[in-house]
Design a protein that fits this description.
CATH topology: TIM Barrel
Mean pLDDT: 95
Shape: globular
Structural class: alpha/beta
CATH class: Alpha Beta
CATH architecture: Alpha-Beta Barrel
Strand content: 15-25%
């Protein structure tokens, strides 16, 4: 299971206290409690701001040595500037998050629907100029970008095309590098996500995903997967189910 990293999108939700975190848990201890259950997390708040050095040190110190953080690129890079004239912001972000050292996982570039084929050359240039030591995952929300040109580019740059189950774009099954990045986003039109409980039973879907991912366990593909609060309504439940199913799959191989 060393190649399987399953968790949730974020951890700092006060509506998880009492149904995942112990009741009365202080918000400053959420990450510590989270790390007792999962060894990885996708950090959503880096989408809104570059974290301070103090924040990154706190994350590092509150988690075990084998914990992995996957981080979103800031929206100023992906949504505001859409990769154009963003060298300074990119440099600051990369340098800052590198302080997580061995705990730094993939960095996710999540693009808006308006990022399409007209921006393809910008993406190629951006990936070319990134430090090669970092693992990069790409999520697009423009169907026109899902073509062989993109797959070939990501393969050359050793970047992953995110597999996304959600409302914004059809699910893909293309693997472009030696790791897979899965995002179970769900549908916010159907799930409130703020109730601290399972709103839609997704076990059968999670089981299908476990079977699918389990087929990769014998290969060299490393898997990172994260559940949104809009999937079933309670990401900790989803992630625990997925981990349990994958562990059973691993034992049976």
């Amino acid at each position: 299971m060393d190649k399987i990293h399953i968790g949730t999108m974020g951890w700092s939700y006060n509506f998880w206290a009492g149904n995942f975190y112990p009741p009365e848990t202080d918000a400053s201890q959420y990450l510590t409690e989270y790390a007792k259950h999962f060894a990885s997390v996708e950090v959503d708040n880096t989408f809104y701001r570059i974290p301070s050095e103090a924040t990154l040190k706190r994350w590092h110190d509150q988690t075990p040595s084998d914990f992995v953080f996957s981080l979103k690129f800031p929206r100023v890079i992906t949504h505001v500037k859409m990769l154009k004239n963003c060298e300074q912001e990119t440099s600051v972000f990369i340098k800052r998050v590198s302080s997580l050292e061995d705990k730094l996982g993939p960095l996710l570039l999540q693009f808006p629907p308006g990022f399409g084929t007209a921006q393809f050359s910008l993406l190629e240039s951006f990936l070319t100029n990134l430090p090669q030591k970092h693992r990069i995952a790409i999520e697009v929300r423009n169907k026109k970008l899902l073509n062989n040109d993109l797959y070939s580019l990501l393969n050359r740059k050793e970047a992953a095309l995110a597999w996304v189950e959600g409302q914004f774009i059809p699910l893909t099954d293309v693997i472009t590098t030696d790791f897979l990045y899965v995002r179970w986003e769900g549908d916010r039109r159907k799930v409130n996500g703020l109730l601290g409980k399972v709103e839609i039973d997704k076990y059968s879907d999670i089981k299908k995903w476990a079977d699918r991912i389990g087929q990769l366990l014998d290969s060299s593909v490393e898997v990172f997967g994260y559940f949104s609060k809009y999937y079933s309504g309670h990401p900790p439940t989803d992630a625990k189910q997925q981990l349990r199913l994958l562990q059973n799959s691993s034992k049976n191989q």
